[in-house]
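Hello everyone,

My group is preparing for a crystallization screen and wants a predicted model to guide construct design. The compound we'll soak is zinc ion. Before spending weeks at the bench, it would help to have a computed complex in hand. I've included the protein sequence and the ligand's SMILES below. Output in structure-token form would be ideal because that's what our pipeline reads.
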Amino acid sequence: MANTTTAASPPAVRSRHEICELARLVNCGECWQVPGKPCTPEGDHVARFGRAMRRGLVTGPELIVVLQTLDAFTNTTIVCDVPGGVS
Ligand SMILES: [Zn+2]
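Reply:
Good plan to model first. Here are the tokens for the complex, ready for your pipeline.
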């Protein structure tokens, strides 16, 4: 008998803008910017997103959403935030 139970929809992956805001809740392991302030006017270091994930603020899939927009990156790469939350 087939299980027709509708699978719960997977947890929604937050928008890139929201993920950037969550990453900003931790200090940056690269430039040591304090929580609440972006690393640069353009965005935040990749290192900061890694820290946010280790703290449980963002999920692995969300980290991938952010990193897959970059061709290549290191901890010092800046992830540009998207004003208004549209990625
Ligand atoms: Zn930084």
